[in-house]
């Protein structure tokens, strides 16, 4: 299923900065109270809006597409048996314009994400067309991919030296702008950690400012790093 959707991925490596952030639970709960969304929907909506605001006016006009994409597990829908660990994943697109994302309320953005999640089963019978008719557009710099690792259990793995202090994501050759919502960090889980490799170095400061305005904590050292 993933292979069938590879045409949506842009070709070639992107030079993107890494920004490590923590979204405090107080901020997430505030967004959830406004929108009625899940943790994933709330965090994805914040990242989507902050990133779009950071790049609008630099790379795109307000009417240009600024889609969100996220992978979704469809084991239950295809009847995968217990213990099957092969790929049962589809990529869902949430279409929107830069203006709609940058100026919309969290309730509106969460509603778009939720509607797309509800339509994931349709991908299994629509030839992987997703939310729009025909072929899905390629994921270029105007797009954002958000992936959640919070329910995979990576933080509970113990290979003999104890559980990891932190589980994060590192991508040496990014081909699409992406964010990974990382697993909790044990007793110090005071928010949701996100590894964001989704903006060009010249947009990293603007992205960080948008996040801080929302109450998100940005690791100071992350603004000096870019993916190799």
Automatic annotation (TrEMBL):
InterPro entries: CAT-like_dom_sf, Plant_acyltransferase. GO terms for molecular function: acyltransferase activity, transferring groups other than amino-acyl groups. Belongs to the plant acyltransferase family. This is Uncharacterized protein.
